[in-house]
Amino acid sequence: EDSSDLISSARMEVEEWAKNQTKEITRLKDLERYRKEFVGNVSHELKTPIFNIQGYILTLLEGGIDDPKVNKLYLKRTEKSIDRMISIVEDLESITKLESGELKLKYESFDLVRLVDDVIEMEQMMASERKIQLQFNRPEKPVKVLADKKRIMEVMTNLVVNGIKYGKRKGFVKISFYDLKDNLMVEVADNGLGIDSKHLARIFERFYRADKSRSREQGGTGLGLSIVKHIIEAHEQTINVKSAVDEGTTFTFTLEKAK
Ligand code: ADP
């Protein structure tokens, strides 16, 4: 009687152990797949500018250097490719820190109206070049929030720049605030190209781009929105997107109001 009890409890223990082992193996396999995919994506993204630079230099070496016009053009293109590599590497640093939880938020109380003013001022030139109006339903009074100012600046800049990059000529990007009871809702809306519903659910994933060629041409890395989402979630807030092809896209996220 006693020995059979012992055996059955030992068996249960072994079964439990085996179950945990299986779980752990699945977790490690997932991690390994994720790591491989990440490295694959990164090298793929970096290859394009590297090969381009190689091509430009070859053209110069093969005689282009003697023609001042060609010379300048190809050096400019080289510089552009290097810029692209820098933004990929910077985005990668951000995302690695965010995903490993290494990033500590520096909470402070600040005026979101002024932050939006600054973002608009900085992106005005890019918007004007594409004939896109930056609009701000600007509250009269300061709107104080409690958040990491630098990171929220990154979020706003990313959303506004996306609105410009994927906008239509003579379109707009409009920023509005809505006072919810416990927090503040920020809306960044454009009347641009929009995102097909089959892509919409995935745009916050690393390297995901609804329209690869357009994104590259605009200097996109496909990392911006995943950084944005990480930042908002690190604040324990939420971000949402609504979009219709050819009509436009609206992002909304929440922030904690400062008391
Ligand atoms: P990217 O560097 O390619 O812009 P993001 O992570 O910022 O990467 O965005 C992911 C993809 O989502 C973009 O490639 C684009 O296809 C789509 N997207 C993002 N914002 C908008 C927008 N405002 N309008 C239309 N499409 C957008």
UniProtKB/TrEMBL annotation:
Residues 41-259 form the Histidine kinase domain. One of its GO terms (biological process) is cellular response to phosphate starvation. Keywords: Kinase, Membrane, Phosphoprotein, Transferase, Transmembrane, Transmembrane helix, Two-component regulatory system. Its EC number is 2.7.13.3. GO terms for molecular function: phosphoprotein phosphatase activity; phosphorelay sensor kinase activity. It comes from the Bacteria. It catalyses: ATP + protein L-histidine = ADP + protein N-phospho-L-histidine. One of its GO terms (cellular component) is plasma membrane. This is histidine kinase. The lineage of its organism: Bacteria, Pseudomonadati, Bacteroidota, Bacteroidia, Marinilabiliales. The chain holds residues 86 to 344 of 344 of the full protein.
